[in-house]
Amino acid sequence: MLKKLRRALKDQRGITGLETAIILIAFVVVASVFAYTVLSAGIFSSEKGKETVYSGLEGTRGTVEPKGSVIAIGPLVADNCDAAWAAEVTATADTTDKHAGTASAKLDIAAGFGTNLIAYHDVTSVDLSAETNIKVWIKSDVDVSENVLQLLLDDTAGCASPVETINIDAITADSWTEHTIPIGTPANCNAIISVGLKAASDPGAVIVRLDDIKGHDGVEYGPTVDECEASWTDRVTATTTDSSDKKEGAASVELDVVGGFDPGLIAHRDITSVDLSGQSKMSLWIKASADVSGSTLQLALDDTAGCASPVKTLSITDALTANTWKHVEVDLGDASGCTAIVSVGLNAASDPGAVTINLDLVTGNEAVREVVLIIANAVNGEPTDLTETADSNNNGLLSDETRNHVVVISYVDQNQRINDIAWTKQWRGSNDNDDLLELNEKAEITIDLTAVYKGSNPLGANTEFAIEVKPPKGSVLNIERTTPANLDEIMNLR
Question: Which DSSP letter does residue 92 get?
Answer without folding.
Answer: E
